[in-house]
Design goal:
With about 100 residues, this protein is mostly helical. It is about 45% helix and about 0% strand. The chain has 5 helices and no strands. The longest helix has 17 residues.
Length: about 100
């Protein structure tokens, strides 16, 4: 039995990751410069900006640094949100772990 492929990130996280990358590019920072400003390695910045099924989750301290560095509001980072706060937009999918049944 095949299990569906789940994403590691919620839709809101994917959206914020896209916005973070776009803010960095719009500011004219390279990956190296963006990483230096955030106090992370280039690899960590790649993991922060990736929307694939790997990478790292975002934390509040990092978002606060980005707000200051890119002079962006939280609305710019988060984008438009659905009115229904129970929406799947805010739910982090859980990746199925363990071995596949035979």
């Amino acid at each position: 039995m095949d299990y569906p492929q789940y994403s590691k990130f919620s839709p809101i996280t994917v959206n914020v990751k896209k916005n973070i990358r776009q803010l960095r590019l719009n500011a004219g920072y390279s990956m190296n410069e963006g990483a230096r400003l955030l106090g992370v390695s280039r690899k960590q910045l790649e993991d922060i900006e990736t929307i694939r099924n790997y990478g790292c989750h975002l934390d509040l301290e990092l978002l606060a640094k980005m707000k200051v560095i890119y002079k962006a509001s939280m609305d710019e980072l988060v984008g438009d949100l659905p009115e229904d706060y129970y929406s799947d937009y805010f739910v982090r999918p859980r990746k199925r772990l363990g071995s596949q049944p035979r």
